[in-house]
Design brief:
It is built from 1 helix and 10 strands; from the N terminus they run αββββββββββ. It is α+β, with helices and mostly antiparallel strands and 225 residues long. The chain is rod-shaped, with a radius of gyration of 58 Å.
Length: 225
């Protein structure tokens, strides 16, 4: 039986087979290239999307609190004018008036360690222990205030009585029914008075020593308002 020639020995068959293998290889390479391009495109798109997302994601807000510190400088009020003797806060000091009756000494007196610039002083002596002084106020006032005491005394156990009268009938007399306040004071034991005047326009002050002794009875800053 005669032997037939092998297909791979035939040049035409070999050429056809090589051509087919080349086509298959080219198709595989082309397919792989397409897959690679698709993968690269996907990765590039993913990275770009992540970058855009990072750019568009708002950063968390930061709150900054600024505390301002203010420095306050207090300006000291000017000291009261020592020469202002007539009116202070609407009050009329009696040492600015010219009274009748027993004349007082005016000026600064110290009572209980406190200085009073608008004081009225009356000396009490044997045979002259009572002083009565009348002040014409010029108009009606409702209130009288003062601090009373002894500036000096030879006997600290003795007392002086300070009495206030609202002279409603304006006769210049200290009538008992016109008395609106009275207080006794000893050396280093001052007392305060704050009395109603019943809208009186004439005021009477009386100082009276209970016994015979030397002293200076002081009405400290007596004023009406």
């Amino acid at each position: 039986m005669p032997t037939q020639p092998r297909d791979d020995a035939d040049p035409a068959v070999k050429a056809a087979r090589e051509g087919r293998n080349g086509q298959i290889l080219a198709a595989v390479i082309t397919g792989l290239a397409g897959v690679l391009v698709a993968v690269l495109t996907y990765l590039a798109g993913k990275d770009q999307g992540a970058s855009q997302a990072a750019e568009t994601t708002p950063s968390p807000a930061v709150t900054v609190t600024v505390t301002a510190t203010a420095t306050v400088t207090e300006t000291a009020s000017p000291a009261p004018d020592a020469e202002r003797t007539t009116l202070t806060d609407g009050a009329l000091f009696l040492d600015t008036l010219t009274p009748t009756g027993s004349p007082p000494t005016t000026g600064t007196q110290r009572v209980g360690g406190q200085a009073y610039q608008h004081s009225l002083g009356f000396a009490t002596e044997c045979g002259g222990g009572t002083a009565t002084t009348v002040f014409s106020l010029g108009k009606e006032y409702q209130r009288f205030r003062t601090t009373v005491g002894l500036a000096e005394a030879e006997n600290s156990e003795e007392a002086v009585t300070f009495s206030v009268f609202a002279d409603e009938d304006e006769d210049g007399l200290a009538d008992s029914d016109e008395q609106v306040g009275s207080v006794a004071s000893q050396l280093r034991r001052p007392a305060t008075m704050d009395v109603r005047l019943s809208r009186a326009s004439t005021l009477i002050l009386r100082t009276e020593a209970d016994t015979c002794f030397r002293s200076t009875a002081v009405w400290g800053d007596p004023r009406v308002s």
